Amino acid sequence: MTNHILLEVGDDGVALVTLNVAGRAINVFTPEFTSELQAVVDQLASRTDIVGAVITSGKPNGFMAGADLLDFVHVHDRGLAPREAAQLVAPAAAALRALERCGKPVAAAINGLALGGGFELCLACHYRVLVDEPKAVVGLPEVTVGLLPAGGGTQRLPRLIGIAKALPLLLTGRHVAGAQALELGLVDALVPAADVLATARRWVLAHPGWQQPWDRKGFAVPGGAGALAPHATESFGLGMAKIRRDTQDNFPAPAAILASVYEGTLLPVDRGLAVEQAHFGQLLAGPVARNLMRTMFIHKGAARRLARRPEGIAKQPVQRLGVLGAGMMGAGIAQVAAAAGIDVILLDATQVAADAGKARIAAGCARDVKAGRCTQEQVEARLARIRATPDYGDLRGCDFVVEAVFEDRAVKGQAFGHAKEGLGTLPAGFVMATNTSTLPVSGLAANWAQPEEFIGLHFFSPVERMALVEVIKGERTSPHALARALDLVAQLGKLPIVVNDSPGFYTSRIFCAYIDEGMAMLREGVAPALIENAAKQAGFATSPLAVTDEVSLDLQQRVIAQAEADGLAARFLRQHAKPVVEAMLARGRLGRKSGGGFHDFSPGQPKRLWPGLAELFRPAAQQPELTDVKHRLLYIQALESARCVQEGVVPEPADADLGSVLALGYPSWTGGTLSFIDTVGPGHFVAECDRLADQHGERFRPCAWLRERARARSAFYSV
To answer: Per-residue DSSP letters for 384-427?
Structure first.
């Protein structure tokens, strides 16, 4: 027995190899595990009392995941060359190759999920038995963190099931459940949990001296390989075109996967594995994989574990949630709460309005049933947990309330007053939250009797689909209120970021910077199509004019007016966007809700840019370069994020990056706004901002704090 692997030889000569990496909830590849795996493989090959082996997991929640990304995330920052980066996975790849060449049959008894390197270990086995359970999925998701499978996945999978079936799995990284895994040939048997080991053992005993198909003389890739294969045009020609269309050349991993499969399957498997490692080294040494691993895996995982939760405060799950306002946001919050098993009081001014909110929820649930996301029985249980009412007295007994009424101080203040009357004596641990997107939380807290138990919870629309919640601490918000708010976010299955109170908080500030820059360019005479296409090519989830249509221009008018009424600093007044908003509203162009804004919205037709924009904002004869437009959109948000860090609005860079990507659709290849600054380099970032300021306005001018960071070469993240 080693620290991570137990080898037991039965009376029949079959070795049971149990993976149980010490100190980990699920098995992962580590350098120590890899060396022990190689030692076990050596025993399988050399011991005469062993006729074959069954490999399984000793963990209750899965077979094996891939590598520990913490071992990889700093490779780019350490300046490793691609060849050096590739050497980090060479020992594991060699151990898997030795396993399949050990001369004895080896079966994988997959008793839970097997992903990444875990599934590559299964592919190196000669036979795969998967437990028939919903959570037991297999797949190679490396592309989602900017990498490719480096343990033979791009070589063994195409040789096992053919290139045409393998490429979609490699390029999407999707998880495949049992029945489909069996149909695709990813596994050889799907059996109940009680039969997994026995099935694997029977196969081993029945197949002495088994070899992988690709190690046998005369092997050919199923369906063919190379440019003359029947599927070649679809797989490689059109495949590359689709990759370039979908990634806009911002993500190198999909193209590297395609190249690895194409080149490697033309060669003997050992040379193909060398091709795979070379492509992997290029990816791992680059910044995009670093950015995706850090933000979309490590930081996302930390948020899921509530890394910002104050210590020493006992968890108090919300039992009964009050939601003030049954509009789109309030109904969305009620819907996800009911789905999480929480009883909800959904309150609005009239019974008709409250019922309309619940009807909206029911319609959304019906769509979920139709899509197979839940059952009718589950929907009925969820709807039964929601009580729609106009009576504030029904809030009595709620231990947490989220206000989601109209974005107006007076309206919200009135709602808080009615809620206090209806609640009566507050239960122990009670917290009041406001779902505001722009109004300062500290000012709203003045309307509540216990401002220390008042906090901001900024949900994003549509609530049921958006993963992030921005948690805003007011000046007097207590650690208890923060802890309970974070616990509620986790109950709802959402990811929190934590920011401090400030005009626009964090996400609204950088969102406004983005849409305002789009409107500023429009006013300057930049062609609308150029603005929209530049955003798409930069990798933004939605272009600035399109997303403004979704949130509505009349809302932007109210936000601007509120900023002016509050006497905020000039940079919050959005003067470069205000004339565009006014001109559009004067023509009744409010956005999607009015049937038209910057785009026309016709029922049953795709949206298209409104032709009247050319008359209202006449395009300049000389249009800017595409790169310049992309930079304006990327840099203005990153610069505003840096200001938020400087001002203490966002205490943790990780939260800034998560918020920008998950809530606002900032290009994920960058890792987020602050990761983008680190990626281009602080010095280059400041210089480019100065160039943009000289050409387009002082809003791009970096502050002294950022200039000092650039001089000191101080990154937001250190190795």
So the answer is: HTEEEES-GGGGTT-SEEEE---S-HHHHHHHHHHHHHHH-SPP
Catalytic residue among 36, 100, 142, 532: 142
Distance, in Å, from the CA atom of 199 to the CA atom of 74, rounded to the nearest integer, reads: 42
The pLDDT tens digits of the residues spanning 207-217 come to: 999 999 999 99
Do the beta carbons of residue 115 and residue 141 sit within 8 Å?
A: yes
Catalytic residue among 100, 120, 263, 652: 120
| Concatenated DSSP letters of 279-295 | HHHHHHTSHHHHHHHII
What are the pLDDT digits (tens) for 308-319? 999 999 999 999
H or E element in which residue 139 lies: strand 138-139
Strands 386-389 and 320-324: unpaired
Which among 384, 385, 364 is positioned nearest to 374, based on CA atoms?
A: 364
Residue 620 is classified by DSSP as: P
Q: What is the pLDDT of residues 66-105, one digit of tens each?
A: 899 999 999 999 999 999 999 999 999 999 999 999 999 9
Q: What distance in Å separates the CA atoms of residue 93 and residue 91, rounded to the nearest whole number? A: 5
Question: Which phi and psi angles does 320 have, rounded to 5°?
Answer: -140, 115
Query: Does 615 participate in catalysis according to the annotation?
Result: no
145: which DSSP letter? G
pLDDT digits (tens, 9 = 90+) for 5-48: 999 999 999 999 999 999 999 999 999 999 999 999 999 999 99
On whether the CB atoms of residues 95 and 101 are closer than 8 A, the answer is no
Question: How would you label 88-103 residue by residue, b for 16+ Cβ within 10 Å and e otherwise?
Answer: bbbebbebbbbbbebe
Give the pLDDT band (50/70/90) at residue 569: low
Q: How many residues belong to the chain?
A: 719
Task: Determine the Cα–Cα distance for residues 181 and 189; give it in Å rounded to an integer.
Answer: 9
Identify whether the C-beta of residue 169 lies closer than 8 Å to the C-beta of residue 157.
yes
CB atoms within 10 A of CB 411: 12
Phi, psi values for residue 257, rounded to 5°: -65, -45
578 phi-psi bin (left φ>0, alpha ψ -120 to 50, beta other): alpha
How many angstroms from the chain centroid is the CA of residue 481?
A: 27
CA distance 336 to 469: 13
Say if residues 590 and 554 touch (Cβ distance below 8 Å): yes
The yes-or-no answer on residue 142 being catalytic is: yes
Q: Give the integer Cα–Cα distance in Å for 248 and 252.
A: 10
Confidence band of 587 (pLDDT split at 50, 70, 90): very high
Query: Taking the CA of residue 212 as centre, how many other CA atoms within 13 Å lie in the half-sphere pointing to its CB?
Result: 27
Which contacts of 612-615 are long-range, i.e. CB under 8 A and separated by 24 or more positions? Answer: 612/587, 613/522, 613/528, 614/528
- The token pair at 518 is 């789009």
Chain centre distance of CA 530 = 28
Question: What's the start-to-end Cα distance of the chain, in Å?
Answer: 35
Dihedral sign for Cα atoms in the order 409, 413, 415, 416: positive
- b/e sequence 245-273, b meaning 16+ C-beta within 10 Å: eeeeeebbbbbbbbbbbbbbbeeebeebb
CA distance linking residue 153 with residue 168, whole number of Å? 13
Pairing relationship of beta strands 454-459 and 468-473 according to DSSP bridges: antiparallel
